[in-house]
Amino acid sequence: MRRPAAVPLLLLLCFGSQGAKAATACGRPRMLNRMVGGQDAQEGEWPWQVSIQRNGSHFCGGSLIAEQWVLTAAHCFPNTSETSLYQVLLGARQLVQPGPHAMYARVRRVESNPLYQGMASSADVALVELEAPVPFTNYILPVCLPDPSVIFETGMNCWVTGWGSPSEEDLLPKPWILQKLTVPIIDTPKCNLLYSKDTEFGYQPKTIKNDMLCAGFEEGKKDACKGDSGGPLVCLVGQSWLQAGVISWGEGCARQNRPGVYIRVTAHHNWIHRIIPKLQFQPARSGSQKRDPRGQEPLEQSSAPSLPAHTILLVLPALLLHL
Ligand SMILES: *[C@@H]1O[C@H](CO)[C@@H](O)[C@H](O)[C@H]1NC(C)=O
Ligand SMILES: *[C@@H]1O[C@H](CO)[C@@H](O)[C@H](O)[C@H]1NC(C)=O
User: Fold this and answer.
1) Residue 282 lies in a domain
2) Name one GO biological process term (predicted).
């Protein structure tokens, strides 16, 4: 699913400006029928996954984080002014015939993180504002963005999704069905060690920066690859899917000692909050954690959405009790 050499390859908002009826809570797929080494995804399994297209061709993944916002990678947009060339496809499982649940949205603007400095550098995140809010359906739903208090533990099994290449050599065969792959989180010291290995084979050592997160396998074989860039790495925390990372880069795809590298969504919380002040961020354990997420700050300006926020805190424990 990623790209060649140092390949560039994203997070979100849980509730749109309309606040959050329980029915539009982030990170909760409604369809419960539910990459390199990946498997076909099911219809509605990853309802936040989007395909970002240029002149009708898929070039990057992304995730819906609010009704009008998509999180993706900065390296997907060498020129953020060309908004008229871009389209975002939502609610699709396959790209050849996206089907009745899918819709295209036009792009109003692209905000790349100003700290991004090119391939394999920090801050490889961008926010895409859609021309109009999209209606949430069983197939189009936002993922949750984690509050900075959320820690994705080493070894935790998360999922990466995309329409990228199934290997460095091949393209995904038609009809281009969304692929899913489970990958464990690798801690940064270990990942730095892996990326410093095999320099005798001509690899340049690469540094895993503070805002990066590694996930995948030391032995390679399974990974994101070209075309997956900008797509989400999501982890199930409690009852909700939180976006831990944005697919950013790797050295080749699924090579030994070269796990996938993602941009940590929590590291860019302030930047995201500045661009989308109303976005709410999910604390580590809904309901059980009393720390006030920063995402609630905007509620002071507008009291209307505060009721839904509290509703979520109350509803989640209720759901947990039914497990
Ligand atoms: C867009 O695609 C059409 C048809 O595939 C092609 O003829 C055209 O040159 C493309 N335009 C750009 C700007 O790439
Ligand atoms: C970016 O795209 C805009 C609109 O098409 C164009 O005017 C501008 O020259 C482009 N900038 C670069 C650096 O290519």
Assistant:
1) no
2) proteolysis
DSSP label at residue 172: P
Q: Is 146 domain-assigned?
A: yes
* Confidence grade of residue 224 (pLDDT, cut at 50, 70, 90): confident
Q: Which of 54, 55, 79 to mutate to test the pocket of ligand 2 (most atoms within 8 A of CB)?
A: 79
Query: Is 268 considered catalytic here?
Result: no
Average pLDDT of the segment spanning 277-281: 96
Model confidence over 288-301: pLDDT tens digits? 444 444 433 333 33
In short, whether 301's Cβ falls inside 6 Å of ligand 2 is: no
Give this prediction's pTM: 0.80
CA torsion, ordered 123, 129, 133, 137, to nearest 10 deg: -40
Q: Is 269 one of the catalytic residues?
A: no
Whichever domain contains 190, its CATH number is 2.40.10.10
Bond into 175 cis (ω within 30): yes
Instruction: Select which of 112, 122, 124, 147 is catalytic.
Output: 124
List the domain range (segments joined by +) for residue 80. Answer: 39-275
Percent of the chain with pLDDT over 70: 79
Q: Give the distance (Å) from ligand 1 centre to CA of residue 56.
A: 8
Residue nearest to atom 12 of ligand 2 (CA): 79
Query: Which spans in the chain are helix H?
Result: 188-195, 269-275, 306-321
In a domain, 18, yes or no: no
Helix ranges, 142-250 (H): 188-195
**Kind of pairing between the strands at 145-146 and 281-282:** parallel
Residue 187 falls in the annotated catalytic set: no
Q: Is any ligand 2 atom within 6 A of the Cβ of residue 79?
A: yes
- CB 40 less than 6 A from any atom of ligand 2: no
Tens digit of each residue's pLDDT (9 = 90 or more) over 74-120: 999 999 999 999 999 999 999 999 989 999 999 999 999 999 998 88
Q: Domain count for the chain, please give it.
A: 1
- Is residue 50 a part of any domain in this protein? yes
Core vs surface per residue 27-59: b (16+ CB within 10 A) or e: bbbeeeeebbbbeebbbbbbbbbbbbbeeeebb
